Amino acid sequence: MNAEELLIQAKESCKKRGARFTLAREQVFTLLTGHSGAIGAYDLLDELKLIDPAAKPATIYRALDFLGKQGFVHKIESINAFVMCHHFSECNHPVQLLICDRCGHVEEIQSSNLDLALRSMADATGFTISHQIVEAHGACQSCS
């Protein structure tokens, strides 16, 4: 799905949910669609300042928080960066990320077996999973 299609889908999703897709949120969303890998908030801020010179760190963090809550982006905790979700219509899906430590490429995968195993282990201990992001670091096919 290309950037324009993702933007249309995001706007429709926000409209259905009654969420405000402000100009700043749209700009950050659009910047994220231009990256195949993860990007840090301050790198996004540098890009946003080319469009809106008055942009501040709070602008980025508020937009990223909103986009994350909508399921449009995922935060990669281990490297403190963000990556676009290309199938965010499934907003509560388990997130499994393969992160290349050499080139920075991030691949989102969906393994129902991994999700089932994790949920089964959590259930056995009486733990309820409310949000799941599994991060695996290594080398992508191009870098191996």
UniProtKB/TrEMBL annotation:
Q: Which domain of life is it from?
A: Bacteria
Q: Which residues bind Zn(2+)?
A: C100, C103, C140, C143
GO BP: negative regulation of DNA-templated transcription; regulation of secondary metabolite biosynthetic process
Cofactor detail note: Binds 1 zinc ion per subunit.
Q: Which Pfam families match?
A: FUR
Required co-factors: Zn(2+)
A GO MF annotation of the entry reads: zinc ion binding
Concerning InterPro entries, the annotation shows: FUR (IPR002481), Fur_C (IPR043135), WH-like_DNA-bd_sf (IPR036388), WH_DNA-bd_sf (IPR036390)
Which keywords, in A-to-Z order, does the entry hold?
A: DNA-binding, Metal-binding, Repressor, Transcription, Transcription regulation, Zinc
GO CC annotations on file: cytosol
Which PANTHER family does the annotation name? Answer: ZINC UPTAKE REGULATION PROTEIN
Q: Which family does it belong to?
A: Belongs to the Fur family.
Please identify the protein, giving its name as recorded.
Zinc uptake transcriptional repressor Zur
